[in-house]
Every structure is written in C-alpha cells, then in structure tokens.
Amino acid sequence: MSKMTIKDIDLKDKKVIMRVDFNVPIKDGKITDETRIKAAIPSINYVLEKGAKVILLSHLGRPKGERTPEFSLKPVAERLNEIIDNEVKFVDDTRGEKVDKAVESLKSGEILVLENTRFEKGEKKNDEELSNYWASLADIHVNDAFGTAHRAHASNVGIASVIPSVAGFLMEKEIKFIGGVTENPEKPYAVILGGAKVSDKIGVIKNLMNEANKIFIGGAMMFTFLKALDKKIGSSKFEEDKIDLAKELIKEAKEKNVELILPTDAVVAQKLETGVEKKIVSIDDGIEEGWMGLDIGPKTLELFKNELSNMKTIVWNGPMGVFEIDDFAEGTKQVAQLIADLTDKGTTSIIGGGDSAAAAEKFGLAQKFSHVSTGGGASLEYLEGNELPGIKSIANKKRLGERNFILAGNWKMNKTNTEASAFVNKLVGQIGNENKFEIILGVPYTALDRVADITRSSKIKVAAENMYFEDSGAFTGEISAKMLKDINTEYVILGHSERRNIFKETDEEINKKVKKALSNELKVILCVGELLEEREDGLTLNVVERQIKKGLKGVTKEDMSNVVIAYEPVWAIGTGKVATPKQAQDTHESIRRLISEIYDQDVANSTSILYGGSVKPENIFGLFSKPDIDGGLVGGASLKEDFIELANIMRDIIV
Ligand SMILES: Nc1ncnc2c1ncn2[C@@H]1O[C@H](COP(=O)(O)OP(=O)(O)O)[C@@H](O)[C@H]1O
Ligand SMILES: O=C(OP(=O)(O)O)[C@H](O)COP(=O)(O)O
After folding, report:
1. Is the confidence metric ipTM above 0.95 for this complex?
2. Among 141, 153, 371, 496, which one carries the catalytic annotation?
3. Which protein residue's CA is at the shortest distance from atom 2 of ligand 2?
4. Is 255 exposed, middle or buried (0-12, 13-18, 19+ CB in 10 A)?
5. Mind listing the pLDDT tens digit for each residue in 74-104?
6. Domain 406-653 in this protein, CATH class
7. Which fold has domain 185-388?
8. In the sheet where 88-91 sits, what is the strand order?
9. Which fold has domain 6-172?
10. Which reaction does it catalyse (predicted)?
11. Pocket residues for ligand 2 (CB within 6 Å)?
C-alpha cells in the first residue's frame, strides 16, 4: 500500500490523536451494533503497546453542530471501556480547558475519548482553526475512520494538513480490499448489486462497467431495469425517472461486453408485511397489478449460482430483497451463503457496508467473507473510483525511483575546518552508504576540499553555498565554478534567501550563476521563496514564479536534469516557524506545475523540489510524506546529529 501506516512510525512516548468511526446505531441508549467499535480496537491496542497515549475522535449521527445529548459519545466510550483492557476516559467536551486538562493528565496506556466531533460547527466545514486545535493536542494523527473517508472534515482531513496522518489497521485493510478491487481485481470479477435505488448506485455501476465481467442486479433496483425492458412489474418499487438511465446502462453493458444479469423470477406479495400471502412469479410471465416483487426467486438463485461459480472476485452491495422481513429474506440469505461458500474455495469476497453488512451479520455469515467493509457510503464512493478525501489526506510512502529524493544540509557560515572534519567523519560512519536518497552537504568554501576528501569513499556529496558567475579575473573575494569543480564539488546552492536579502543578489545575477554552474558541470540547487510580507499580501506564487522563471532563463530541458529547486519561505528560515505540510505542499505543487509549463510534464515529474525553513526531526515526516516534497534543504539541524535523525526518518518513508 502506498499509504503510511502506524507500523511505519515510531510511536514511543508520542501523543496520538486517532480518528475512528464510532458512528454506531443506538436505540434507547443501547448500542445495537458494535461492529465499528470492535473494528477500531486492533489499532488502539497497537499504538498503546508501542508506548503512545491515545486521544480518540469520532462523530455520532448528525447533530448539526449543536450539543445534542442523544448524540453524546459517552455510551460508546463506556462500552469501549468494557471491551478493551486499558482504561478509557471520557471528556464531555470537544475543545477548551476541560479537554486540555484531560489531555495533560493522560498517562501512557490510557485512552481519552472526546465528545462527538459534530458538536462543533467547524467539523463538517473542515475548519482550519478547529483542525489546528485538535492537531495541537498530539504529535501524530492516526486515521482509522474508513466509514467517514468520503467526508472532508476537520477531524479526519483538516488535522492531516497540520500534523502527519497515518492509516490505522482498519483503514489499511479497507484500502487493501476495496482499493485493490477498484484498481486491479483478480478476474473473472463479478459484482452483485441490490438495495433500494438505482440512483444510489449509478456511479458504481458506471465505473464497474470498465472492470467487472458480470454485474448481477437484485433488490428493488431490479424493477427499474425490468421496466426498462418492458416487463410487467405490477406494483413493485421502481424509479420512473431512472428508466432511461437503466436502458442506457443495458446498452453500455452490451457495448463493453459486460454481462448484466437480471433476475428471472421474483417473490411477490400484496403487502409488505410478515405472514402475508406470497407467490413466485416468472419475470417473463410478468407481475400482476397489486402485487409487488419483494425478493428474488429460486430460479434466479439457481442462475446466480451457476453464473458465479468460477468468479475469482465478488463484490456485493445491497440486499436482494426486503431482508428485514423473514418472508422476503431468503434471496439475500442464499446469496450471502453462496458468496461465503465461494470464499471458502478461494474467491476473494468483499461486502460493501450498510445493509448488506447488516444482512451478513444477521445470517451469521460476516466472518466468512474476505472483507466486510465498515463503510456504506464510503465503500460505494470508493467503488465508484473516486479518490476519497479521508484517504488522500493520509501520508504517502515515497516510491524508490519515483524521483531523486534529497536531504541537503546548508551549514551557512558555521564550522571551522577542524569542526567540519570531526562532524563529517561521524556522518560518513552513520549515513555514508545511504542508497535510497541523496545526501548533500553544503559547506563553507574553506571546508569544501576537506569535506570532499572525507566523503570520497561514501555516497555523501558536497555543495558550495555560492559562487560567482565570471570565469576568472579582477573579482576580489569571489570564487568561480571552475575552482569548485576542481576540488570535486558536485553541487552549488544558488539564490539562497540570505544571498538575495543580505547580499542583494538579483534574479539576473542568480540566473547568470545558474548558467555558469551548469556549463561547468556543477549541479545547481536553486533556492526560491517569499518574504513574510509577500505571503501576507498573497504574493507567494507570484514571487516564486518570478524567481523560477528568471532564475532558469536560458536553461535547457536537458540541463534541468542537473537542477534541483529548493522552496524556502523566508519567514520560516531560522525563525523556528515552519510552513505546515499543506502550505509547503501547495507551493511545491504550483512549482511543479510551473516547471511543466516552462518545459514539459516529464521534466516537472523528474525535478526534485526540496523544502527548506526550520526543518527538524519533529516536522520532516509531515513534510516529506507530501507528494510534491522530495526532501529538505536543512539549515540549523544540519549542523548537529539531528541531520542523522532526519536521514533515518526519510529512509523509513521511502519504500
Ligand atoms: N424488492 C424490494 N422492494 C422494496 N425494498 C427493497 C427491495 N429489495 C430491497 N429493498 C430494501 O432496500 C433497502 C436497502 O437499500 P440500500 O440502502 O440501497 O442498501 P445498502 O444500504 O446495502 O446500500 C433495504 O431496507 C431493503 O429492505
Ligand atoms: O455511517 C456512516 O456512513 P454509512 O452509513 O454510509 O456507512 C459514516 O459514519 C458517515 O456518516 P455520515 O453519512 O453522517 O457522514
């Protein structure tokens, strides 16, 4: 899986804020189905075992931003306390003093459940301030709320733009199974759809037309299709306004060579009640007026059984009939049994949440399937092929070879040669053989030769922090590209904000340096970034665009393989302020787009874009796990052992 999980990170002594989906049905104060609570327990136990403290966030129902006692999470916290070994505390608030105190006094091994996230108006609006507050309570966000993954709310998506977010085990399993069939199902692949409305499942059917070999239709949905085929459906439930759509889908299935399998008989009754007279009617004979189809019949079951027998993957979403009433539950029960039997023989089976999961549970078959999803809406949207916001926001692993990932240090005017030797020897010993990413040390001119010498036997590379754009001559105090090349310098950092702001280097001068370096076969780290006032005036992208366009003027597409961009917001350099992963990612994404406009998509995809500005072991994870952040240009932390730690963290993210 390309997402980071709780297994990929160090949890010892960390505070974890975990989003779970405890949106369970409650009747008269009693939880009627605790599947979702139980499903979250493996992740909770794991982070506790690893020495973390856990704060749990969840919504319950739809209280519309109001404190509504009937939607309190208290009964859920109490139930969790009964079924989990560790102590569960509950705080009847979502933010503020009570929450702060409860978090402060939380001990290792304890779990704290906050009140329903939807008591906050900002939750559903993915409010930034609320996200920042919840993020401030912890070091790491764990997202185990698959059921909520189709919502972009503060507690699942918002927090992830402030602190790193990783998947819990439940989320991982859901992505593995549902993501797996959406992307690459083992074939032959069948989908069984039922339930009430075609309109709910239209997106899924459309997407599945491209992947599935067979689509079976049952439930009330079937009557819209049968009506579209001019069959007599009596008083069965159907959607008049979806008949044309059903006709289109039937046509599309033919064109795409997908077998659309419709029932051949139905169980009909005159009333939707227990114990009423019922009969089995063939669809070809038609259903009489006054009678309605409430389940699929035995011939259909026989047909489904034959057609399903050699399937390697089966997805089932939606009951075949009104399974809540025993008289009309047989079709759903038999289909569930059929899928369970096939699973026994090696078929991968996935039950999309909601009513089908409830039906599987009711018939005691839930354990028999490969995967029963805890998400109804979420699993449907996922099967539609949509990228779910609550999955997108989870940190990505980096794939080796995707781009050149880089950890570059910039010592600035620090370290004498003697100090440099001792430190670099240590770096060589500990991270000198790194092969997942490049390590570059930007050192003062005086240390270049010595550091290049010490690192020669390792993979560590050396960068100068500046150079002049002329070849030689009367430029007292300056150093040329040729001089750098001669002492085995591989990179040169150009346009650093301190060069721009203290030494007043212009874009034009920087551009001359870039071209001179490249023509001398020196690789370039071109720094760009906005001042605080420019950011506040909303000018970040204008500034960065100008610096890149001018800095790269005349640089060819071929030369770009020797150029690295470093985005360093000036307000974050040496100030201890760090851009949030989201702020950095947004700018990096824009920079990559700009490079694709100047050159092309291939150049954009292969150009490494580093982030710089108060990068530390505490924040590199969140930054580097963003898709367009390819590493860091590190100032202060590159002068000490932190640099080794940064390398260790980056290594874990690359797979
Ligand atoms: N033939 C039918 N006539 C009326 N209702 C039906 C019929 N078949 C299934 N249903 C109802 O459809 C409902 C489930 O629909 P839906 O919410 O779309 O399923 P899911 O939650 O699994 O996606 C159930 O309550 C079931 O009783
Ligand atoms: O129960 C849920 O949805 P589901 O019933 O579609 O699985 C999720 O907790 C999301 O809840 P919501 O649909 O109120 O956003």
Report:
1. no
2. 496
3. 147
4. exposed
5. 999 999 999 999 999 999 999 999 999 999 9
6. alpha beta
7. Rossmann fold (3.40.50)
8. 88-91, 111-114, 53-57, 15-19, 140-143, 165-167
9. Rossmann fold (3.40.50)
10. (2R)-3-phosphoglycerate + ATP = (2R)-3-phospho-glyceroyl phosphate + ADP; D-glyceraldehyde 3-phosphate = dihydroxyacetone phosphate
11. 21, 23, 62, 147-148, 151, 353-354, 375-377
